[in-house]
Amino acid sequence: MPDSSFVGSSQKNATTKRDVKQVPFVELYNHRVQGVVSSGSDIERVYVSFFEAGTLDFYCSTNNNRPCGGLGGYPCKHLQAVMKEAIAAYGIDQVINYLKVPGDLSQITSLNDIINRRGTVKKEPASEVFSRFLNYLRYLELQTANSPLPEMSWFV
Ligand SMILES: [Zn+2]
Q: How far apart are CA 34 and CA 4, in angstroms?
């Protein structure tokens, strides 16, 4: 899989179990911690949330590119869920490193310590994150298919 963000994943500091139902997709990619969060109320809707490395600017929108209603000057619950799951998946050290969280690293030990160093809202379309998510889903679906896969023919 090209550009996979799973390769560098370290489970070393991961102590929490991933909640894939709430956050089916989270990755450290393209200088962001980004992920897809299920809507609690509407099964058709998901939220796409990211934090940007360096600035810790953040944004959250639906898969239809509508801004998240919970997004004020503070990261909404979706952004917090993505950060929580990133820490669970990669370990907090790797997340802090990847995001280049500013400040005294010895003082940054929790989700809230990272959130407290947040930047500002940065409006960016979510389509790239969402299409990457769909692409991963497609690979998952491929594994359970019984029909021949033309793309795999070069293995033969
Ligand atoms: Zn949100």
A: 14
Taking only the tens place, the pLDDT of each residue in 84-112 is: 999 999 999 999 999 999 889 999 999 99
Report how far residue 121's alpha carbon sits from residue 24's, in angstroms, rounded to the nearest whole number.
Answer: 23
Quote the ligand 1 centre to 69 CA distance (angstroms).
7
Residue with tokens 């898969």: 63
N- to C-terminal Cα distance for the chain?
18
Q: What is the mean pLDDT of residues 66-77?
A: 92
Ligand 1 centroid vs 97 CA: distance in angstroms? 24
Which pair of tokens denotes residue 113?
């310590």
Phi, psi of 58 (to 5 degrees): -145, 160
- 3 state DSSP class of 32: strand
Q: Which amino acid is at 44?
A: E
**pLDDT computed for residue 151 by the predictor:** 61
Residue 51 confidence (pLDDT): 97
Selected residue with higher pLDDT from 17 and 26: 26
Q: State the CB neighbour count (10 A cutoff) for residue 23.
A: 24
Ligand 1 centre and the CA of 61: distance in Å?
6
